[in-house]
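Thanks for the sequence, V.! I ran Aliphatic sulfonates import ATP-binding protein SsuB right away. Repeating your input here for the record:
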Amino acid sequence: MSNLNFYNNGLIQPVIDAEKPNSAINTHGANILIEQLYKFYGDVKVLEDLDLNIQAGEFVAIVGRSGCGKSTLLRLIAQLEKASYGEIKFQSVRNFREGIGNDDIRVMFQDPRLLPWKNILQNVQLGLPKAQHPLAESLLEKVGLKDKATQWPTQLSGGQRQRAALARALSHSPRILLLDEPLGALDALTRLEMQSLIERLWTEQGFTALLVTHDVSEAVQLADRIILLDQGHIAHNFQVNLPRPRKKSIAFAQLEQQVLDAVLAT
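Predicted structure:
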């Protein structure tokens, strides 16, 4: 796999469509081009000859049955694992010759992974230069945790801890945010609140978002595009042409059922 600082020679054309209703308003993200990607674990083939182009500022959801390669794909993009074959390339939309480094990519997991010996503000400030510590306070306010800044992770609810994890990920102003089922363990109401929060912050900051989820309704709620993986291949590619903010409607329900039927058919 190529280094994260790679910028390609015109293979990805920057795309900013200010009139497209589903796009982030202020595109801060990066293009992701995946070419002929393979991943093996011994004799087990998880991803095979996968090609995918994600535009800067796009919100893409990946769905599919357990074991289809969703989380593996995210880990490869985050360079937490290495591909067996193929390439993942990045390009900043802001500057053609500007490389994308490790600090430009952040991952939010299902487990918030907060350090229990640091308070919430200190967790959000992790890795930030001292001069940028006020940004952490601002983000805690955005996610509704300003009054919880001095509390310990064990004093917060599951939803509050995930809000803190989101603030920590965004404190580094990532170009790419990878979301690996971050809402899976939350109750239904908290999950809806977190979906709205993620969408609002994505719209404000314009990062490229890639969400792995088993919840088809969540994918339709958040994504510009839904990718269905099946045995390491892209089985379907659904465009979500619904205005934001999204509400349950006939069109929403029809697309949700279409995606669900495709998942069940794999």
